[in-house]
Amino acid sequence: MKEIDYYEVLEVSRDADKTTIKKAYKKMAKKYHPDRNPDNPEAEKMFKLCNEAYQVLSDDQKRAIYDRYGKSGLEGQMGGGSAAGFDFDDLGSIFEEMFGFSSSRRKRNRRDYDKYSLDLGIELTISFNEAVFGTQKDITYSYKTPCSKCNGSGAKDGKLSTCPRCGGNGQIYMRQGFMTFSQTCPECMGEGVSASVKCPSCNGDGYTGIEDTITINIPKGIDNHNRLRVAGKGNISKNGSRGDLYITFIVEEDKHFVRDGNNIYIEVPVFFTQAVLGETIKIPSLTGELELKLDVGTRDKQQFVFRGEGIEDIRGRGKGDLIAQVKLTYPKNLTNEQKELLYKLQESFGVEESKAHESFLESALSKVKKWFNSNE
Predict the structure, then answer these.
(1) Beta-carbon contacts of residue 268 (< 8 Å; ≥ 6 apart)
(2) How does pLDDT run across 88-120, given as a tens digit for each residue?
(3) The listed CATH number (2.60.260.20, 3.75.10.10, 3.40.50.12780, 3.40.50.150) that belongs to domain 257-329
């Protein structure tokens, strides 16, 4: 039986450096990992071989022996081909990078961590015109600061005890196949300690809320769900550093204008006679009035574009357009006199124009009759 070649397993040349070998191992381990190949014994076998190959080729001493004597030269150093000889610190960093978890020997100490994120996010509702033209606003919000009574620990007088669930490690462990992995303890959130008695001042939260009012400048062109960062106005940590405040804007809709990026749409009611005659009418814009010259026989929903009459780009890349869309309107009621005038107008166009629909309908009806006759 042909002996397995570790270089072939990782698909690298025999003169590959450590960086290349590590990169190849990450690629192969990700490809054959059991989580990605459930109930696939061949993939599980390849995954173990990749680990075995990396264990040897990433170690200068073992690699030198392997290159000279082959796998047999490593007997007694490999732990029977198991994972016992792995450098878990190295492998742990690889698996954390690939899959988002850490190996069992990689412990995190979070006792000095804050119980909350330092960056703070709030929503602010503004009107349509405030978003278009920009404005200055005073906003009141609440941020977190460590409780002065318990120094942010959440425990009465700052007295903490070892977490009973993780035994002070801040991690709980689980096995998956032949590997052991850890995750942050949900009881103490990775701190390894918990409050014996909750701090009465903050009820065990470890922080208190402080209300503050600041003035912000909202730039022109801000759009719905855009965010604005206000440096140094977030939550305060135990060491006194402070995060940032992120404001997400909610822009109210306007009664007349509809925004699409930096473009603005407006629906313009046009009486049918104005559309037929191609009149010039005045329409509102963001900065005043504009003249709209209708085409003779303007159609319903026809659009007219006014370049540069839209919203100023927030990054200073010019302005969008104003798009006026026609909505044809017709009289709801007609007097006898108006009906008479319309009849006369219709007749003045002649049969070809005013009765064009009749010839169309006659042609279609004749075709349908032929269909029925041919099937009899």
Answers:
(1) 281, 283, 292, 324, 325, 326, 327
(2) 444 444 554 454 444 433 444 444 557 788 999
(3) 2.60.260.20
Q: What's the rounded Cα separation, in Å, for the pair 196 and 198?
A: 7
- Tokens 């010039």 sit at which residue? 280
What DSSP string describes 69-97?
A: H-GGGGTTTSTTTSGGG--HHHHHHHHHH
Q: What is the pLDDT of residues 272-315, one digit of tens each?
A: 999 999 999 999 999 999 999 999 999 999 999 999 999 999 98
- State pTM to two decimals: 0.58
What is the domain partition of the chain in residue ranges?
Answer: 6-103, 120-159+196-251, 257-329, 336-374
Task: Say yes or no: do domains 6-103 and 257-329 share a fold.
Answer: no
Output the DSSP codes for 257-302.
EEEETTEEEEEEEEEHHHHHHT-EEEEE-SSSEEEEEPPTTPPTT-
Cβ atoms within 10 Å, residue 128: 19
Instruction: Indicate the residue type of 5.
Output: D
CA distance 102 to 95: 7
Half-sphere exposure in the Cβ direction for 329 (13 Å, CA): 9
Domain 6-103, CATH class in plain words = mainly alpha
| Cα distance between the two ends of the chain | 81
CATH of domain 120-159+196-251: 2.60.260.20
